[in-house]
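Exercise 3.2. Students should predict the tertiary structure of the chain below and write it as structure tokens, then compare their answer with the key that follows.

Predict this chain's 3D structure.
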Amino acid sequence: MYAYLVFAAVCLLGVSAQEPQRCVSPPVWTAKLFEIDSRRTFDVFANITYDATNQRIRIDESIDNFTNPTRDYFDTFFFFKEKMMYIVNLTSKECKKRDLPDDIVFHPVGIPPDARPLGEAVIGSNAGIKIGVTVDLWSGTSPRGGRYMGVWTSVGCIPVSELHRLESGDILRQSFYDVALGDVPERFIPPSNCQ
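Answer key:
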């Protein structure tokens, strides 16, 4: 009986060790972004600069519009505290300064407060050293409405991907690559011709 209790305790410890611990993502970073939004006819490939501390995001994007073979490139600055945005057409060099619409609000790239852990997984393989990365999976209510699932590295809490199933049934998926930590204040200076 004692051996059974010890075995059960070891099994419970093994299971509890697999449950992700809530972490806080770095507040400032840059990365490559790939976004699929089922509401649009194009995917976004972008460089993203993210600053949660000052609530600002820059998306320097190239847009694949599958209904139009030409590519449009935009560099968009979102300043959420100031409720201002700058949109630069990289082809024409035209820049427009606009008030942020009320429905565009800052959503932190992090684990939502109501999220529950789904477990750990390995991207790549765990068959050898340095051929995979352990990630934590979380699910909850999306800050955009609907359901949410997110993936972060177990070490460092670096964002890997987010999937939002909106109340409308539409899906928004964002994947982050080549994440570099640190502040890059010069990335948030709009061109001088923005009016």
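Discussion points: Residues 2-17 form the longest helix (16 residues). Residues 1-17 have pLDDT under 50 and may be disordered.
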